[in-house]
Amino acid sequence: MAEKSNYNLFFLLVLVIALTSLSASFQGIQFHTQVDEGYYFNYAVYIGEHGLSGFSSLFKAYLENQQHWFFPNPLRIAFISLSALWFKVFGPSFINLALFSLFLYLLFLGVSYCFSKKYFGGFSAVLFTALLAFSPLNMAMARRPLIESAVNLFSALSLWLFLDFLKERTKLKAGLFIIVYSLSILVKETSVLMSVVFLFFLFYEKLALRKGIGLKDFFTVTVFPFALVGLAYLILGCLPYFLGITKIILSSPYSNSYAIIYGSGPWFRYLIDYTLLSPWIVILSIGFIAYYFMGQERKDVVLYFIFVFLVSFIIFNIFTKNLRYVILLDMPMRLFSVFALKKLSERFFSRHVALVTISLVIMIAVSDYVSFSNLFLKAAIYDPTSFMLLKARHIIP
């Protein structure tokens, strides 16, 4: 019991340090009112004033004005509704919407700690949460009035709840997963792609592990959550506009000049961009994946997150490339990094594994915070695309 309490105290310490560091970065922050941040703010204000019945007119207005098509669409009704509720409590302002992102970031850290402690133990959970807390991408999105912190929270929670469902296929576990995954899709429509990850792992369990997989399991990750999403749009009167907005979303990468110039590139572009943010995380996570497949050790929970990373990486390469859009990849990479550091410490410092691992995690966290400070505070990067990152690193003029 005392050991568990110590882990919880260390987690709270990580939370306090991260919150203090981020809070200081809000001073003098500038917002981009004419692009994504402005759209999310206006959507929340509009729904706050008109209530949920205002979504149908919001959808209609978006569809009828081509100038809106290159900016966030109103399909993201869960995020817009939660933002409107936040404004009801704290008042509508850009800084308050940014603070909402900070709040969601803290919830994400709490969810990550609780579930990782359940599956990997308290020691790994604290180290994992520390790396997540000081992720340059997570910290950057936690201070912007954007959707990424919400996407991160609901995507992570969906992944953990699906893992819970795999371990114990009860109606309660299935119901929790379906509800949260449905909300994840309603936060951002691209979350629907996570169903590919879930389906892949179900097929793996059936074919490789010979586990019994029923039709209801496939319905749980596809039909049921999709039906709930459709029902939400139907109740709000948005269904007549759904297909039109979907067509706009699918055609946007080919017609949006910004996406073409800054968001195109080869499949390995995400690895380069992420290396510019957190080089040690890339090296450690790739090294661990290679170690896992070459070694004899096989843990289904670890393999699950390797599936999450590899399948998501392949899928998101089809679309516009922007690190903001693949914030989901940050979580498994940092989990792999913790595993890699523990393995390295066991191999070379067997008498001081805990001390060495903790020291290395602290060094990486400090390095990541410096990266966050240099790229997102001093260089004031808004969109972490290759061009912006390379320019901030002085690799290109």
What's the quick description here?
With about 400 residues, the protein is mainly α. It has 20 helices and no strands.
Please characterize this protein's 3D structure.
75% of the residues lie in helices and 0% in strands. The chain is an all-alpha fold. Helix 2 (36-50) crosses helix 4 (77-90), helix 3 packs parallel to helix 13 (239-255) and helix 5 (94-120) packs antiparallel against helix 6 (122-133). The longest helix has 27 residues, at 94-120. The radius of gyration is 21 Å and the shape is globular. The chain starts with a helix and ends in a 5-residue tail after the last helix. The model has no long low-confidence stretch (mean pLDDT 92).
Provide the descriptors you would attach to this structure in a database record.
single chain, 397 residues, mainly alpha, 20 helices, globular
How many E strands? 0
Distance between the termini: 56 Å
Oligomer: single chain
| Main beta-sheet strand count, sense and barrel state | none
Poorly predicted parts: none
Order of helices and strands: HHHHHHHHHHHHHHHHHHHH
Mean of pLDDT: 92
Q: Which bin fits the share of residues in helices?
A: over 70%
What is the number of helical segments per DSSP (H or I, 4+ residues)? 20
Computed CA radius of gyration, to the nearest angstrom: 21 Å
Instruction: Indicate the structural class.
Output: mainly alpha
**Range of strand content:** under 5%
Give the CA-based shape: globular
